[in-house]
From TrEMBL:
HAMAP family: NAD_Glyc3P_dehydrog. Sn-glycerol 3-phosphate binds at residues 105, 135, 137, 190, 243, 253-255. It catalyses: sn-glycerol 3-phosphate + NADP(+) = dihydroxyacetone phosphate + NADPH + H(+); sn-glycerol 3-phosphate + NAD(+) = dihydroxyacetone phosphate + NADH + H(+). Residues 179-319 form the Glycerol-3-phosphate dehydrogenase NAD-dependent C-terminal domain. GO terms for cellular component: cytosol. Residues 2-157 form the Glycerol-3-phosphate dehydrogenase NAD-dependent N-terminal domain. One of its GO terms (biological process) is phospholipid biosynthetic process. One of its GO terms (molecular function) is NAD binding. Belongs to the NAD-dependent glycerol-3-phosphate dehydrogenase family. Its main location: cytoplasm. The gene is gpsA. It comes from the Bacteria. The active site is at residue 190. It comes from Desulfobaculum bizertense DSM 18034. This is Glycerol-3-phosphate dehydrogenase [NAD(P)+].
Amino acid sequence: MKIAVIGAGAWGTALANVFSQKGLETCIWARESGVTAKINKDHENSWYLPGIRLDEGLHASVDMARVCDGAEAFVWVVPTQFTRHALEQFRPHFPHKPTIICANKGIELKTLRTMSEVVDDVLSDMKPRFAMLSGPSFASEVCRNIPTTVTLGCSSERRGKKLQEILSSESFRVYTNTDYRGVELGGALKNIMAIAAGVSDGLNFGSNARAALITRGLEEMSRFGEKMGARKATFRGLSGLGDLVLTCTGDASRNRQVGLKLGQGRKLVDILDEMRSVAEGVKTTEAVYTLAKQKGVSMPITEQLYQVLYEDKDPREAVTELMTRELRDE
Ligand SMILES: NC(=O)c1ccc[n+]([C@@H]2O[C@H](COP(=O)([O-])OP(=O)(O)OC[C@H]3O[C@@H](n4cnc5c(N)ncnc54)[C@H](O)[C@@H]3O)[C@@H](O)[C@H]2O)c1
Ligand SMILES: O=P(O)(O)OC[C@H](O)CO
C-alpha cells in the first residue's frame, strides 16, 4: 500500500517516518525543494526536524502528481490556514473518493471552518473519505520511537478500524473514535489553552494556576465542542485531555512557547517573526473567539487570551479578570 503524506514540516516528516519504518511505501510532499533534497540524500529534514535520522525508504518530492500517483491514503499535514489553497492545488491529482486523513490542528480563520469542513468545501463532489488523526504527539518524540498514542476520528467504524491497522506500529498506537468532530476540535482547541498555560508560566504563576487552566480549559473546550456537534466524552480522551496536558506542560510545544514569551513581556509580532514553525493556536484563538460569540458559548479563557494576543492587553490584567469574575458552581 502506498501512503502520500502532504506537508513536510516536523509532523508530516515524523508521520511519514513511522509509516516508512513500518514498511509501507511512503512518499512525502514538501513545498521546499531544499527539504526534499535533504530527505532523499541525507535522510534528514534539517529545516523542520533537525538531528533526526529518517528511514531510508522514505522518499520526498515537490511534484504533486508524483506523490499522489497510486496512493491509497493521503495524510494531510499542511498547516490549517494554508489547507484550503493546498487542497485546491492537489485536487486534480486525487482519485475519486480519496481517503483524506487530516493530522493538522486548527480552524480556518477567514471562514471559521474546521478541517473536515474545509475538505468537504473543496472536495465534496469527489466524495472524500475523511478521518482525523490527533492526540498527544510531539514530532521529535515520535521520530525517536518513544511510545505515543493518538486517536483516529472516523465516522465509519469499519473504515476507522481498517486505517487503525494500517497506521499503528509498536511505538505508535492508534485508537479509534467515530466522533471525528470531537477529535478535530480537541486538537484545535488545546492549542489555545497551551498558549494560555504558557502565559501563566511566563508570569511565574506556578503549578496551581497551570492546573486550574488545564481543568477549566477542558471544561471550556467541551462546552464549545458540544455546541459544535461533538460528544463531550471525546474531550476526556487522547485528542482532548491527553493533548491538552501535553501541550500545557511540555516545553516542546510551540504554542506553549508563544505563551511563555508573551508572559515574559514580549510582543506577539516579534515572537512570531522569530519562528519558522507554526503555532496554530494564535489564529485559532481568533477563530474560536468569533465562533463562540456567534454561538453564545461562554469561553472566558479564550476571550482573555484573544485580548492579550490581539488587543495588547496586559496578561496580568487578563488573569485578574478571570479570577474576579462572578463566583459560580463548578
Ligand atoms: N510538530 C508537531 O509535533 C505536531 C504534532 C501534531 C500535530 N501537528 C500539527 O501539524 C500541522 C503542521 O505542523 P508542523 O509541526 O508539521 O509544521 P512546522 O511548523 O514544522 O513547519 C511549517 C510547515 O508549514 C509549511 N508552510 C509554510 N508556509 C506555507 C504556505 N504558504 N503554504 C503551505 N504550507 C506552508 C512549511 O512548508 C512546513 O511544512 C499543524 O497543524 C500542527 O498543529 C504538529
Ligand atoms: O508544538 P505544538 O504546540 O504545535 O504542539 C504539537 C502537537 O500538537 C502536540 O500533540
